[in-house]
Amino acid sequence: MIVTRFAPSPNGHLHLGHAYSAITAHDLAKDAGGTFLLRIEDIDGARSRPELADEFRRDLEWLGLEWQEVTAQSQRIESYQAAAQKLQDAGLLYPCTCTRSEIQRAQQAAGIEGGLYPGTCKGRDNLDLERPHCLRLDLDKAMASVGELIWTDEHAGSVIVDPRDFGDVVIMRKDEPASYHLAATLDDAADGVTLVTRGSDLFSATHIHRLLQELLGLPVPHWHHHQLLLDEQGKKLAKRRGSPSLADMREQGEDGLLLAEQLRLQRLPGGISLESA
pTM above 0.90? Predict the structure, then answer.
């Protein structure tokens, strides 16, 4: 039976891109007689606004969706800490005290492109751990410990795990309980998710998540990465760019059921397009 989810972060209002993602996940579950879950990913520090979780529920109800709600991330901190400790005990994590500006300067000096961490703290035993620090995954050690892995996407088929584009990712953040990579991976396992439904912008992150599943002995779901909605500039809809919110549409009296049906038929409002498959 399919169990899939919609997992928004309450750090901004939902927009049409979120609606498309939620509807896609809901319908995949409903059509298969499965379960559609709502999970609130609320560990983003001061940016997480509890009142937005209630707004999200009103938005989904307005769209005509039905769901089962599972435990929010803020109630799962101990599980993240336990998983990080397991990785640390296996010698797969190392502390990093670098600031963003220090990382940028080191990247420029080394000619590193694409945002990869330059490994400044890797292998150092003289770090001042009184300074704020995160824990990073030693990708070389992690990959060597598991061998070749694959994951399966509903559109792309079998994909060989190759997380090198991410480098030594953060597992436990300086300022928050866990990184997205660790928290989402653990949560999907805890919630019994069998099909991870999310946008194509997170396709590459699945390489890291599949690796973490293997390292932590977690079940392996399938993935469904759907197309994104794009604005007039061809960029994905985003909270930070002020994409129109579902709450505003709802409060202005728009018909949520009609909007949901239009999104299912990919009949999009003016200025909005669907990325190429």
Answer: yes
* Distance from C-alpha of 81 to C-alpha of 177, rounded to nearest angstrom: 8
Give residue-wise pLDDT tens across range 174-196.
988 899 999 999 999 999 999 99
- How far apart (Å, rounded) are the C-alpha atoms in residues 18 and 6? 9
Comparing C-alpha atoms, which of 152, 153, 120 is closest to residue 136?
120
Residue 207: phi and psi, rounded to 5, are -60, -45
Q: Quick check: 97 and 128 in contact, CB under 8 A?
A: yes
Q: What share of the chain is helix, strand, coil (3-state, %, to 5)?
A: 40, 15, 40
pLDDT tens, position by position, 223-243 = 999 999 999 889 998 877 767
Closest among 171, 158, 159, 152 to 221, alpha carbons compared: 152
The angle formed by the CA atoms of residues 258, 261 and 266, to the nearest 5 degrees, is: 125
Helix (H, G, I), strand (E, B) or coil at 163: helix
